[in-house]
Write a structure and sequence with these properties.
Layout: H1 2-11, E1 20-25, E2 31-36, H2 40-43, H3 45-63, H4 65-71, E3 74-75, E4 78-79, H5 80-94, H6 109-138, H7 145-159, H8 166-173, H9 178-206, H10 213-242, H11 244-255, H12 257-280, H13 284-309, H14 314-325, H15 329-340, H16 345-370
Antiparallel strand pairs: 1-2, 3-4
């Protein structure tokens, strides 16, 4: 029960629980009813994102060229303020990766294979397809071809990065197996290291976008490899010195808000740089959201019904469907900024991905619970 207690303490404060009961077992093996709900920061993430966007647009319009000075603070095409904030987003989630759990892969082989097939052989390509259909074809009257290419690129970056953090929340809310969830996240984090660059390169090449591979590889090293190594060693050192219980019940819960605060500050900066574009064409947010939402539901249904066909338990099928449907948007934002710039359409797409993720995923949580078997 240790890891289940960890997820409850980390993500679901009792003061913010929903009214939906579930069954658990206490230390004396007595079955008891408790309540599950999403934590305060996660529950209102869409509201925080909307507020960050509004604040960014306001700052951009008030300060104009003054705020643009920050966009020039770069090293090797990487904006320093944004890089620091993205590091602050990604590092806390890497603290949770436990490679010792990889030995449990053999316990749920069908679920893990399903996750890997959907995440790496289906999801990136369907996202590229939906983006091409909408941005290049259906939106042709609203978006010029050059902009369409960058909007497609932003969607591709989202589609090639499966979720590594919020999936713990979605799994918890649907009574997913916490050990399986941790295993699939750990395996996907390792695969990102070798698969993200070639998949993104392939799909961007198909869309005739020039690919600066040096920047793409540097982004993976800066925003995945280094935080992953730092998170792993922090995990090992603190557990060895303070104990696993202190690490899970004291350190991680205190560290959790850092990711969301850094995300919101990043959004403020992004929209401060893009405020003029947004105020002139506000409906672009809606246009971007449509293919992203369609992709999310499409991938969930594919994974869910494939899991049912494979006769996976609900506790395995649910988190398998959730990790494919949601995105590692922190990485997508970071790479979009590195490749295309702070004020690019690609960066805007990844930010809209953050905006729509929580309400869409909560609807899928409700669906998974309704279809529980």
């Amino acid at each position: 029960m240790d890891i289940q207690v960890f997820f409850r303490l980390l993500f679901m404060p009792k003061s913010h629980c929903s009214n939906k009961p579930y069954i658990t077992v206490n230390q004396n093996n007595i079955v008891m009813n408790e309540k599950r709900g999403i934590g305060f920061f996660e529950k209102f993430l869409t509201l925080w994102v909307a507020m960050g966007i509004a604040a960014g647009i306001l700052i951009g319009n008030l300060f104009g060229n003054t705020i643009q000075v920050l966009s020039e603070w770069e090293i090797y095409k990487v904006n320093i303020p944004v890089a620091i904030l993205i590091w602050a987003m990604i590092y806390p989630m890497m603290l949770q990766v436990d490679f010792s759990r990889l030995k449990d892969v053999k316990k749920t082989p069908k679920g893990l294979v399903l996750t890997l097939v959907v995440n790496w052989l289906i999801k990136p390509f369907t996202m590229a397809f939906f983006a091409w259909i909408f941005f290049d074809k259906l939106y042709g009257a609203f978006i010029n071809p050059d902009q369409a290419g960058e909007y497609i690129a932003g969607a591709i970056l989202l589609g090639a990065a499966p979720c590594t953090a919020m999936v713990f929340v979605w799994s918890y809310l649907t009574n997913g197996d916490p050990n399986y969830t941790l295993v699939q996240v750990s395996v996907n984090d390792l695969i990102i290291l070798v698969a993200f660059v070639p998949i993104v390169g392939l799909l961007l090449g198909i869309t005739n976008i020039t690919i600066p591979y040096d920047t793409l590889v540097a982004s993976i090293i800066a925003f995945v490899v280094i935080p992953l190594i730092a998170g792993y060693f922090t995990n090992r050192i603190l557990i060895k010195s303070k104990g696993e219980e202190w690490f899970k019940k004291v350190f991680l819960p205190r560290f959790k808000p850092m990711s969301i605060i850094a995300l919101l500050l990043t959004l403020v900066l992004l929209f401060a740089f893009q405020g003029d574009i947004i105020t002139k064409t506000p409906f672009i947010i809606l246009l971007i959201a449509i293919p992203l939402v369609i992709q999310t539901y499409f991938i969930f249904f594919i994974t869910w019904f494939a899991g049912r066909k494979l006769k996976l338990k609900h506790a395995i099928c649910s988190p398998a469907a959730m990790i494919g449907a949601s995105n590692f948007f922190e990485l997508a934002v970071a790479v979009a900024i590195s490749l295309f710039g702070l004020q690019s359409p690609a960066a805007l797409v990844t930010v809209v991905g953050v905006l729509v993720e929580v309400p869409v995923m909560l609807s899928l949580v409700a669906l998974a619970n309704k279809w529980k078997y």
